[in-house]
Design a protein that fits this description.
Length: about 425
């Protein structure tokens, strides 16, 4: 019985021991795996003077946006262009019913004729001549009265003439003086009145002629032409609608495409580094890389800089202008611009694949003398020949990890292998 118990005990303990040995073996394997260094490829950060080339995202923008509007009211009768196509300056786009403007022009022409007749009549008026004739007659009557008084005074003094005749002559003289004054006042008033009447007639003619010119313009604008050459969008009204009031006056929009603007942003830091060192001749040969990676054939030139830094992004908007004779570039297209802004002396260069994003900043992994991974945050400024230009964070000479960055952790032991010469760029 005791032998049987020992045998059972032996058989029970054997699986437990086996499990324990197996568990220890797995643990050793896992520890060994965890402690085994990861192999990484490294490359030395180099120092070199490089051209400072800005390579940033850009977007095309029309140099201007021109609204085509109806300046006269009427029914839209015709649309004579294809939406989304190029149009030339002066090309007929729309025609508006011209009957009302034509009637208004005829009415304005009649008003001009009447004003011309009124002016001619004003010039032929005899009011002043009649007043002047009346003044001469009053002055002649006064002269005769004066002579009568002078002749009667000696006779009345000698009693050769009745006193009442002298009194009558003096009364006639006084009346003649008053008549002369009235005639002179009439001449002055008539002179002013005729002058004012003439000026009014001339002003009425001028106003009538201006109204006729406006009517002629209104009639002319029933034919709506393209004010500039460019790409025209969709028509905002349909044939048959009444146009010329409120929003109905806007018929279409034209965007001139040649030249076309290209906007891009540069950092405030880059601006400060280059504002006094930029090669202005180089700014006349800005390159544009299109969304498909192809190079736009015609170089652009710098035109202007935004007046202020964007407080949210810390960047400045720069605008360049590119010739676009074939209309290849359209507003809103994306791409990249390359702008040479001088030379960056003794810059630190690392392969582009070594740089990665780390908590809203850029970083690289370097391998220390103890073969451990160290995270180093860096500041970059563009690229050059497939390498990233590092302006802060590296001194040059560091061994930078150029692969497996996503699988590494700071402090991790690694086995470093130097990149072959063909992988440097």
């Amino acid at each position: 019985m005791a032998g049987l118990s020992a045998l059972l005990t032996k058989h029970r303990l054997w699986p437990i021991a086996g499990i324990a040995v197996f568990s220890v073996s797995i643990g050793i394997v896992l520890v060994g795996a965890r402690l085994s260094p990861v192999e990484v490829v490294i490359q030395t950060a180099e120092r070199e003077s490089v051209p400072r080339i800005v390579d940033v995202a850009a977007q095309t923008e029309a140099a201007a946006t021109i609204e085509v509007r109806a300046n006269v009211e009427g029914r839209l009768l015709e649309m004579s262009f294809r939406e989304g196509n190029m149009v030339k300056k002066g090309q007929v786009l729309f025609r508006i019913d011209r009957r009302r403007p034509q009637a208004a022009l005829e009415l304005a022409g009649a008003a001009v004729e009447k004003a011309e007749a009124d002016l001619e009549m004003a010039r032929e008026q005899q009011h002043l001549a009649n007043a002047q004739a009346a003044l001469r007659q009053a002055e002649a009557n006064l002269l005769r009265c004066n002579q009568d008084v002078e002749r009667m005074k000696p006779l009345a003094a000698r009693k050769a003439l009745p006193e009442r005749d002298l009194d009558a002559a003096i009364a006639a003289q006084t009346s003649a003086v008053a008549a002369v004054e009235d005639a002179r006042a009439t001449v002055r008033t008539t002179t002013v009145g005729d002058r004012i009447g003439l000026r009014q007639a001339e002003a009425n003619l001028t106003a009538a002629q201006a109204a006729r010119r406006n009517a002629e313009l209104d009639l002319e604008e029933t034919t709506v032409r393209a004010p500039v050459s460019g790409l025209i969008g969709r028509s905002e009204v349909s044939v048959g609608n009444y146009v010329g009031r409120m929003e109905a006056s806007r018929l279409a929009t034209i965007s001139p495409l040649d030249p076309i603007n290209v906007d891009f942003n540069i950092s405030e830091t880059l601006y400060l580094h280059t504002v006094d060192k930029v090669d202005h001749k180089a700014l006349e040969h800005i390159e544009l890389i299109l969304a498909d990676g192809s190079m736009y054939l015609l170089p652009g030139r710098y035109t202007n800089l935004a007046r202020a830094v964007d407080a949210k992004t810390g960047t400045l908007v720069v605008q360049a202008q590119f010739p676009n004779p074939k209309g290849i570039l359209l507003p809103g297209m994306s791409g990249r611009v390359r702008v040479p802004l001088g030379t960056l002396p003794d810059a630190v260069l690392v392969p582009e694949q070594a740089v990665f994003d780390a908590q809203a900043s850029k970083a690289v992994y370097i391998v220390s003398a103890e073969n451990k991974v160290v995270l180093r945050r860096v500041t970059t400024e563009g690229n050059y020949q497939g390498r990233c230009i590092v302006t802060q964070g590296l001194e040059g000479g560091e061994n930078v990890v150029i692969d497996r960055a996503a699988k590494l952790r700071p402090g991790q032991s690694v086995t470093a292998r130097v990149a072959p010469p063909g992988r440097k760029r």
